[in-house]
Amino acid sequence: MQTILGAGGATAIVLAKELKKYTGHIRLVSRRPARVNADDELFPADLLNAREVEAAVQGSDVVYLTAGLEYNIRVWRRDWPVLIKNVINACLKANARLVFLDNVYMYQASEIPNMTERSRVEPPSEKGKVRAAVQDMIFNAVNTQGLQALIARSADFYGPDVKNSPLSISVLDEFRKGKKAFWQVDAGKVHSFTYVPDIGRSLALLGNTPDVCGEVWHLPTSNERLTGKDFINMIAAEMQVQPRYYIISRLMMQVLGLFIPILKELKEMAYQYDRDYVFDSSKFEKKFAYKPVGYAEGIRQMVQSQVV
Asked: Which intervals hold domain NAD-dependent epimerase/dehydratase (predicted)?
């Protein structure tokens, strides 16, 4: 049996479909799980409750943790350590392999223009410090308790039916409303994005490959060097609208953050937009002979999936 903790999001939906290639028993776990495949087992659970997580993981061979938390540093500090501890303990008890979907917040700011699995972990943000602590918890359990686990990392994500992608929020959704798109800090910098269907497919590959544990894996991401302005132009062309946009500066984030909580939370991450942000996934691509979806096709699918 293979189990998805945090089922329901766009990545988990793709993953659940992909896992049909590997197993006849898929368990979907969340507060209110919904079937993706007709024969999925639904298991309601709160990942902050240790006993419920243990029950949800029991009998699993592979566990995928794709859960997210509210984008709020107080919530992250309070809940991520509890959630990860619960999942580690449950996987150890069940002798299950853990695949954790992570982001790049823990990397040192100077690594952002060339991120690899060997990039230095020295986070410049409070959210990054939480993610670095999560990584330490997992690899400490690997090294001292015999946990079989790996960390699968993606860049900022986008794709069809993905509502909370930066490209959807700042560009596609604004164009749909007849408004200007917006970009953080500098639209002239390169910025990598990972296609959500590639994330789901590659998580399934990692979960069903025995010799990849104990490592960080960057998930397949196009190596095309496109800037924020390039993405805005591509989405505008696909939607047949004018590529109008404006820049949200750090000062704007600080002022508007008084009224818009998400901007207050994003301000500390603005360093990811004031320099090139390049995500290298060559390790994964060589291991699995995998070619990630290109941006033209990914944006076409993203726009078509969200046509009103």
From this structure: 4-209
- What's the DSSP call for residue 286? H
Q: What is the value of pTM for the model shown? A: 0.95
Q: At which residue do the structure tokens 């999942």 appear?
A: 87
Question: How far apart, in whole angstroms, are the C-alpha atoms of residue 26 and residue 204?
Answer: 12
CA distances from 6 to 9, 15, 282, 294, 299 (A): 7, 11, 28, 27, 26
Find the distance separating the first CA and the last CA of the chain, reported in whole Å: 38
Give CA–CA dist 82/179, Å, rounded.
Answer: 41
Query: Tell me: the pLDDT tens digits for 17-62?
Result: 999 999 999 999 999 999 999 999 999 999 999 999 999 999 999 9
Which 8-state DSSP code applies to residue 191? B
Amino acid at 39: D
Contact indicator for 165, 157 with CB cutoff of 8 Å: yes
CA 137 to chain centre: 19
Cα–Cα distance for residue pair 169/97, rounded to 1 Å = 34
Q: Are 27 and 60 in contact, with CB atoms under 8 Å apart?
A: yes
